[in-house]
Design goal:
mainly alpha
Length: about 325
Amino acid sequence: MHPAYSVIFFTTASGAGYGALMWIALLAGAGHIHAGPVVGAVLFVVALGLVTAGLLSSTFHLGHPERAWRGLTQWRSSWLSREGVAAIATYPPAIAFGAAWVLAGTNSAGWLWVGVLAGVLAAATVACTGMIYASLRAIPRWTDPLVVPVYLAFAVASGGALVLAIAACAGIEPGVWSWAAAVAMAGAWLLKLAYWRRIDHAAPAATAESATGLGDIGTVRLLESPNSSANYIMREMGYVIARKHADRLRRIALVLGGVVPVAALLAGGATSGGVALVALLVAVAGSAVGVLVERWLFFAEAEHASMLYYGKSSV
């Protein structure tokens, strides 16, 4: 599939924003971050800002972005609609929790449950985003059972690093929570490694023989291309990345997005003050780059079944 940069930014930015909302509720409930106007404002502005920027960017690849609202009407059958409904439903409790935190100076008692509700809806939204791709049977690499867990894991991992870094800027030591974020980060990349292994060794979901029903009489090959030049389907559905380039990008994503952030988060939990802050900022930067590369590969390595019509032997 041709990687759409607006969708890559959407899944990366909104995932980090929703993950941050989950961590805000968790750390508030654990008493690690207390209500305060400055740190609260920064936390919620960054989290909701990433969510909003991501959601808006998701409309840029549409031919008519002004009609995006119509996607909300098909929530009974469409994961895209369910994602939109869940995303909108997340705003009221998140904004209410943020307002109580910043304006009233409280994040306890009933307000904490409002924050938990926002975190649950944030997780549901990320899951719906993953299901948009996992439900597309025409793209076998996206229907893998690990797609949704990977989306959720990266949201939690990137959101955790982000929230702890913001808190550290306000003088709140990360402590053992930095190690918890390191575990989440390592877990996300272990899931991704498992996903890569699965798609690399998966049997073809469809072949030219199964698509045409002519497998009983021998190997099916394309006699002549159906088009004299590349068309829209070939450009959008037939994007090809060389195996050597994919392997190199996987290693880059794993090192920058996995090894570096995990090491930085572990260091952040073992140190304090400016050293811990620098470590957490490195973790945020590395995670952002790594997830961007990982998400680009998620689209670039996908193979659409329609390419069997244009000469591909299997998908």
